[in-house]
Amino acid sequence: MGETILEVTNQRTAFATGRGLLQAVDGVSFTLERGKILGVVGESGSGKSVLSRSIMRLLPGTAVTGPGSRVVLNGQDLMQMSEGELRRLRGPQMAIVFQDPMTALNPVLTIGKQISEVLTFHLKMGKRDARRKAVELLRAVGLPQPDVRVDQYPHQLSGGMRQRVAIAIAIACEPDLLIADEPTTALDVTVQAEILDLLQRMVRERNMAMVLITHDMGVVAGRCDEVAVMYAGRIVEKAPVTELFRNTAMPYTAALFASIPRVTDPPHRKLDAIEGRPPDLINPPPGCPFAPRCRFAEEACRRTVPELEGTATHQWACIKPLNREVAA
Amino acid sequence: MHYLFRRFQRLFIVMIVVTFVTFLLVNILPGDVAYEMAGMDSSEAEVEAIREEMGLNRPVLIRYAEWVGGIFTGDWGRSFINKEDVWHAIMQRFPVSFELMILAQAIALAMAIPAGMLSAYRPNGRGDRIIGAIAFASVSMPSFMTAILLIYFFSLHLGWLPATGYEPLSEGLWANLKPMILPALSLALVEWTILMRTLRVEMISVLQENYIALARAKGMSNRRILWVHALRPSSFSMITLLGLQVARLLGGTIIIEQIFGIPGVGRLLIHAVYTRDFIVIQGCVTFFALAFVTANFLVDIAYAWLDPRVRTRGAHG
Ligand SMILES: Nc1ncnc2c1ncn2[C@@H]1O[C@H](COP(=O)(O)OP(=O)(O)O)[C@@H](O)[C@H]1O
Ligand SMILES: [Mg+2]
Predict the structure, then answer these.
(1) DSSP sequence for A154-223
(2) pTM for this entry
(3) What separation in Å is there between the alpha carbon of A185 and the centre of ligand 2?
(4) For the segment B86-95, what is each residue's pLDDT rounded down to a tens digit?
């Protein structure tokens, strides 16, 4: 067993809305070790971003965190920390890369300034050292002409290059935990693989741990050690990638696999989006939240919410898992 | 290049319109300078003789053309009353008015920026509501009323600052600033509120931006996020307003210079109005228009500083 970096226990995050409490994250637990990549996959609205912000403790004022929720980073309980203490961890111990690189960088500050400020702020580096380090980081993330780019503004860079800059910012203080929230969703298909390869390389080279969030099963394949599938704020299946692919238990996971675009597809083919819509998180239906959309759902599925069960390496939240007629 | 040309084109049109309207207004108004010069108990014939001598009997358009031609060649004419060169008279008093306006805007900004930030940081929070109430009270009072209250309180009651007077900078910085504080504050107390509200609205939306979320995720402090990350992108409307306010401020200084006995362009203008010295009036108004256009030209330059996107666009085309 490697060194545990992140331990999330029963994380529950809700938002106070006009219609009532919206349960965006509903009892998520997992642990992540150094050097490992955890993929978090789910449709849009399944709570992935709220989960990532819950871990970083960067929630808006309307958010309510459930009483039993615990996030432990490097042995420190984040729930017990003051805002000032958390601030010292953001950057040096945990960092995040956002989805949309076009809006994630400040339009009025140079690239160099946006990288070096974390160095001067957290590591108390001098201005010139910080600038030199910024150029070095830009080189490390594969930005061409880093010593020219360092003085440029975000609008002078392409989307892919901006995402490289965002990654440079995230790894600047050598954090132990890196959260990448759909880091390639807003990018051209051709650059997506480059950015994912870069993230993977950074995690391996710097021996970090990464949570890689995506709605695309195709992204996690071959890159993650373990994959957690999210639906309606819960983890509904979790397993190492190959196990998940070979022995898919949840019909929802199977549907996600079916929606991966294939190279053999004719261009612009419409994806097999999963039929139906995610449940209302303010007034969830009774029973399994996926039941209303599930081909295999039975009466029992609509009665009780299934708990995560299974083996030490593969868990699912389904009372009628696929490929397992004999097991149960 | 093209951009600059268009700007000058606009400036030219503005100046023609402003000078023409002023000229007409001043010349349509009843009572002319000839009466003033001839004295109270002069005969109609004497007044007519003065008109003849000064060319006041010629058609309005001809006199306008003459005067505007002079403006463009640097000859702003001479006062009918004391024969002082108009350009010279304005330039002598302008630094005083300029200092007053700069000081007023500086005080207004120094109040508006922190207050606007605090309001935007927690909209509808307690700080926001207190600031909103103060701003409302402050903007409800016209500057001359504020001036009278300030004089009463700080000059008469506390005796901290003089109620009237002006000292040139050669007397020392503090001696120069001291009598300027209350007049500048009177102007600023009206101007800061609208700057503050504009900044507040724009900053509330900037604080929702992804790059602010990223700054938080980088562990930056709230103060740094507000001052370094949010202020500049939130300042566009405020800067535009700063330029437009110059017009109101020019009007404000006329009254305030009068109340506080400050020898600025406003006083020159008021005096010229009393004496029907219309060439001075025309000169002052033209000068105000020029000042306004110049201020807004500076605002355009400030945009480039605020927003690198404008800057590089300029560099490419
Ligand atoms: N600040 C917020 N206030 C209210 N509801 C929110 C807020 N942020 C997210 N939500 C809701 O939480 C749910 C999960 O959102 P999110 O985590 O962004 O999904 P995704 O998996 O696409 O990242 C959605 O239903 C969304 O509408
Ligand atoms: Mg998301």
Answers:
(1) GGGS-HHHHHHHHHHHHHTT--SEEEEESTTTTS-HHHHHHHHHHHHHHHHHHT-EEEEEES-HHHHTTT
(2) 0.86
(3) 10
(4) 999 999 999 9
